[in-house]
## 1
Amino acid sequence: MNKKILIIEDEILIGQSLKILFENKGFHAILTQNGVDGINKILNDDFDLIICDLMLNDISGFDILEDSLKKYRREDIPRRFIIMSAYSSAQISERARRYNCLFLSKPFDNINATVDSIIERMDFNKQYTQP
Amino acid sequence: MHKSFFELYTRQPLRIFYSDEELKQYFPRQLNFKKSGRENADLVLDKEIGETLTVSNPQGETFTIHGYNNLIPFLMNIQNSQKTLSELDELKDKIKKSQKNFSKSKANLTFLKENRDNLQNIVISLIQSENLQDIPARLMKLNVFNHYSSFLLLSLQKGISNAHVYDHNKRRRLKSYFIKSSDFNSIFNSIKKSKTDYFYEHKIITPNLKLVGSYLANTFTLNTHQVILIISRDDFITPEENEVTTFKEFCNHIEKALNYIESKNTTQNTFLTLMDSLKKTGYQIEIIDTNKKDVPLNLQDSHKVFLTKNKNFKLHYDSEGYRDKPVDVFHYQRIKLMGELFNILKHELSNPLFGIKMALDILLIKYSKSSFYELFKQIIESANRSLEILNNMTDTFSLQQKISVLSIEKIIDRTYTILKSELRQVNFTATIPEDLKSIKIQTNISVLIQILFNLTINAIQELKSAYQDLKLAKIQLSVEKSLDGIKIFVEDNGRGIPATIAESLFTPFVSSKPQGNGLGLAISKGLAQKLGGNLELTFSQNGQTIFCLTLPKETIITADE
């Protein structure tokens, strides 16, 4: 079965592009532009990977991470989540670092390379989670 | 043999018994007893009690005690030993009833036995001193020190080569003199390191310090001063143990007071520092010390008075002084505002632009063979250029003091990018000699671009009012290497700068433009100087104006490096 990826990004062209890129690589990608909807999807569905923007229109990516702790253990968060943001101020980077997640700052220099690095990380996670 | 003190006072000879040890205690330097084998030696007090008292021992040696201040404690201590006169209470009574001279001896008793509770009050009275030199006089007036005659305060301010000595003595007026800081330090250290708490005159190394006999001393290290406090009875009687402990306790208490007094003294400095830093803000601010009532408060409508938390100071802000503000302040405000605006723009626009770019990248792959391929490519380029302009704008109008390295060509390119819309139709050329293209400049690039931006926008504004047909308008940037650095010329073919204005062109608020605020060039010159260079008007007449920005050679990095 295809790996499932959730993309939470309110900038429609970025979200759509990521969705297409992952689909082209054979993943099952779901896009939402809404943070609350993202939380619902995380809690009610199972995703192999969640790519989450920090600055959403309704809530922040950190809210999503905190709410996800209802479902995932804190130590599983880095394996499950990738954080993206256009605002890479020191405070935000520091806060993101506390979750230990891969942090992508927008704009990406090379989109394809970025997507590949995400996929690589998923492979790594797969190996990592195997007993 | 036991005679009353009264008799002693009335000039009757008195014979008192002492042990050798006791005598040694009072005449440590003068007495060199050979053990006589007897328990007691007897001393005869055979002179009148006034300023001096001579006593003799059976061996015929005589000793003189000077000053009634010394006599009383001397005699009192003999009383306390209870080997001679045993009627201590009776004696006390008699002292109380006796003449004024003896009232001072009461003070001695107070100092020794009763004054501990008064320390807090002493501190309170001391902190009323205006400065450190007042301290000895204030101590002298304290009852507890009534039987002390010399009060010295030595103070050395950090970094000053001479130490102040304020020497109060009951018998004469205040003497104030200097000793070398090296002398001060040796006294300070010998007192500080001493294991005993009282000292004799031979401990004082400097001959300049007028001290007799034993004394009590303590050192203090304040914020900016080192202080030595010395009190002495000008005699050789070893201070009593409880006298020493009381003095120590006293010193511990007054340390705070001394610190406070010192800070009072530095208020004036604080005041000046405050003035200084306020001047740097560029506002003309008058500070009125409301303690000085003679300073008039002529406040007009254009003035605002800021009351600081410290009610002693009022900040008096003169809005008319606005014109004297250094141009830096305007520049700072302008750049800050621009920077904030561009940051908002950058954040709001870069995300959708990035989305456009990303989406087009995908489309480009998908439609690589389509006739739209070129169109998509052009859209991507436009998006990239927009992102670049945004980045250039935010970089240029940032207040960061970043030093970076960039080739001269790129610097001019960036200036051009942000001025592109203004330069539309104007004939703009940038000439960089081949050998200078590889040269890189290491400086605050954003400041450098701000200067070029200002110069170019000035030229554009002039050209726009000079020419109806902008096709005739020309701006030329050129670069030249010179002995002392690199020169960047900004030349336009406008009407030139009137000679009357040219002289004061870089003075704030001087402008040849009716709408100009006269700050652009003043700011630019200030910025150029900040980069270690300069900005000058090299040539101006109708049809040609040349400004020259010089950057020091230290900023140049050649390709080989």
## 2
Amino acid sequence: MGTKRYKGIEKKQARWGIAFVVPALIFFSVFNFYPILNAFYTSFYDRRALSKLKPKFIGLANYVRLFDPARADNPLSFYNSLKATLTFTVGTFIPLLIISLLLAILISNLSSNRAKRFLQISYYTPAILSSVVAATIWMLIFDPRGLGNQWMNLILNTPGVDHKWKTDPMMLQISTMLVYFWKYIGYFVILFIIGLATIPSTIYEAATIDGANKNQTFWRITLPLLRPTVVLVSIMAMLQCLKTFSTQYMFYTNGSTRAPINVITFNIYITGIQDQYLGRASAMSVVLFVLMLVLTLFQFRTTKSGENIDY
Amino acid sequence: MQIQRTYNPINLLIYAFLLVMLFFTMTPIIFMITASMMTKNQILRMPFNWIPESLNWINFKRAIVGLDENYIFLRNILNSLIVSVTVAITTVLLGSLTGYGLAKFRFRGRNAIFIMIMATMMIPFEAIMIPLYMVVMKLRIQNTYVGLILPFLVSAFGIFQMRQYLSTFPTEFLDAARVDGMSELGIYWRIVLPNAKPVIATLSILAFRSQWDNLLWPLLVSQRDKMKTIPQYITAFAAERNTDEGAMMAAALIASIPMFVLFMSLTKYFIGGSAVYESRKG
């Protein structure tokens, strides 16, 4: 009798559990799993928005077109989008990683807690602005008569030179990287400070007793123990950079040329929404998805191995 | 690893570097505030004068009155507020409900469901926006709040955080409430939710920010001026009035005020929000 009643309660409990989980499950099926399957499906069709014609099955033609070497000369081709995205990603996340790690170590070693807190908050402040606002501010700084030129000329001692922040293709790429770097530096500094705080201080004490100097402690203790954080943060930064859109869009709508900043997301937007080639845009989406999936799986693998560190 | 308080050159170098980075992160924000009160000639003057000679409020008026003098900016702020607040609320409610279900109930397929939900974190929004756009077109909900909000109702990340947090919650409390005859929904509402405040704060800030910052999705679904959001307004304003630098900065500053207020009053949850991300590796 007793166990039967207990079973009944357990069954009732299970039903409540399912009821609590079902709404989210339906949501994810409709707004995540269905769309990604649909993107795969649509990528095999020639489908246009606002067209009365039935979508035509064209196999891999969309993908072939994306990676067609003959189209590499077209500055707005997907091939060049990939290149622009990779340039942006590498050019942003490497400085972001190195400088945020450096800043985190320097801040962690300050003796005044007040200075620590002040610097953390100040470095973090740009992150609270929206990407659009960040881009708007920097667009004025990059004006030919703006602060960007004034600072650069002060540093390089080249009075009166215009560095063409928004017009020269390479400078344009650097400008977008700078905006992104500025917005996210504080965020990554804090991630690293948290990572540093998890290293037990006893290890440092032991190292000091053993006669290790600062240099040795950093290269032999801090960096190896921080490795899981470094991997996690760098992949997170890469994933972020691969999805970049607002900054590039903002520069484009303000008159910069599209080709150097035509990142994948931007290309999907133009191809799918403006030019209405839904099939082609879906193929691009699938490529972006696969690219990011590979990075995420890599992150899972490396962080799993990172868990086994024994202090 | 304490830095000694001696004035050796390496320490000077460190302080100089920290100061340069401080200058780098803060000056653009100060520039936005100063420039919003300056005339065009003062903003693009070489060398730049950091203290405005006179306070020039007309920029704010031009930013608010807007491109067609229809005060659509105010409507767009309202739209952004409605979308961001709604998404913050649904993220917390549905996230905690699902997280609670996954943390404290036993049922068949629980782990499979959890893994499925976690797997959606690998699907970037940018890769599914085209199919989502097609769904919105089919449902004819473009230019509506529903269309703006629907894809962001729940976040897998929010569910994950709630589940992690609630699994440490003592089950005895829940059982005691059950013995007292409290309903399951009552337990969720009166015991579970009030005890999840730190996660609620962090998650709602994350959700609010991401929608306040969202440009891409509104670009796809909101074409009518009345239904546009702040990032869209600023983009359009900066593109069409790109010679009115002062008003551009005023619009940018107004759009940032809610975030400044939130940041100053809830700093620890902003900074803590990054800590939450970090815990993903655990």
